[in-house]
# Entry
Amino acid sequence: MKTGANFLEKKDVSKATLERLPLYLRFLQEESGRGTEYISSSVMAQAIAVSSVLVRKDLETVSSEAGRPRLGFKTARLIADIEKFLGYDNLSDVVLVGAGGLGKAFLGYEGFKSNGLNVVAAFDCNPQVVGKEVAGKPILHLDEFDEFVKAKKIRIGIIAVPKRAAQEILDKMVGAGIKAVWNFAPAPLYAPKGVIVKTEDLAASLAILAGKLYRLDMDEKEKV
Amino acid sequence: MKTGANFLEKKDVSKATLERLPLYLRFLQEESGRGTEYISSSVMAQAIAVSSVLVRKDLETVSSEAGRPRLGFKTARLIADIEKFLGYDNLSDVVLVGAGGLGKAFLGYEGFKSNGLNVVAAFDCNPQVVGKEVAGKPILHLDEFDEFVKAKKIRIGIIAVPKRAAQEILDKMVGAGIKAVWNFAPAPLYAPKGVIVKTEDLAASLAILAGKLYRLDMDEKEKV
DNA sequence: CTGATATCGATAAAAAAATATCAAAATTGG
DNA sequence: CCAATTTTGATATTTTTTTATCGATATCAG
# Structure
């Protein structure tokens, strides 16, 4: 049986590379702030704990300019290239559904902006929170969702509602024209083709970390 | 296949597999709740959108019992096996530093518990939050951190403080004996060998999603 | 000017991960 | 009981990702 879910591999950049690019970017921005004009692949490699060859290979696909022997890459240019590749240059509006603990945290989370993202509003049904503001962002009633999203032509949504409501919200999002969804409800969701869904299972992520620790312990005990 | 006792074998499980296991687990728990007794690899594959061969390969490393032709795997047994492998069977205590928006969200986040994790307390410096409780979990002053962690022999910590304080907190954690750290500050941290650090960059994760959408758009435009 | 050297980029090799294929096993339905 | 069918598990193959190697090149020091 073939159940390929990889409809997103148009460009020939690997998923792994895609996840390293923001790390490079963050480091480069820091260095640039310190006035570094040129930066070598080995320095970048050191910073994010990978090999320098891998850095060069990653950059190969996104850099518009070759690195210069003995100097490295031009920091500013590299930043611009990565930002362009990741689409940070055109600020994207994002909506959030679910203004519970996690939802509010997102509204207040700084750092989205520097990655080209702008959370514009949250939606909820709970009358206790509807009408309030968090970090200057309004919490609106879910009834207004469709109109709002369509009017603003928003393409990205975050789901931070309880599990049981998640699929319903996803459908609502798709209906309103949203094309990419970041899901924090611990449930696999089904979306039509052409809509990207990334489910982020925080509990599982932490559990994986704990599991590594656990197995590390086991190994040590074995040795003795 | 290697020799020796099945349950003490050193597992060489790939990172990719490790990330799929929680997905299998969640699905299996759901199915088990519906009374499913046996489950086939192809059903599981369908559920999390991978190939059935891959499912079998993943299970091979963790399942204590072979699947039965024509029936599949015993659901309950599989759940127990995965939970054991991931270390969910022995509840791990976790501490959190930083009781801002994100930190509070974690205190209230349900779902950790079902993954064998128990967030026992948060720590902060801000007198406005110290002494309060969120979801029944106390927020203590950072001064008490060391004693608390050592007394309870806690091994896992979550960092939810601003970037500039992150490295300092990590060092404090290491000093108190913590061995695994989940870092939400958008900064690469340096830890001594033997301490696992996983940095979770939320803004970057969302940006990656947005970037995929962006490139999808570009591709479509290219076609026209 | 000249040579030493750090750094890149290309190519090759290795390692890791995913997929394909198929015989063997065992349940199911007659 | 027996054949048909489904599903596993092993092996082989392909694809993807990472690492290793090395000649070319441009800067820097003297």
User: Anything to note?
Assistant: DSSP finds eight helices and nine strands in chain A. The helical segments of chain A are 15-33, 41-48, 52-62, 75-86, 101-108, 145-152, 163-175, 202-223. Residues 96-198 of chain A form a domain with the Rossmann fold fold (CATH 3.40.50.720). Residues 2, 40-42, 52, 56-57, 60, 66-73 of chain A lie near DNA strand C (CB under 10 Å from a C1').
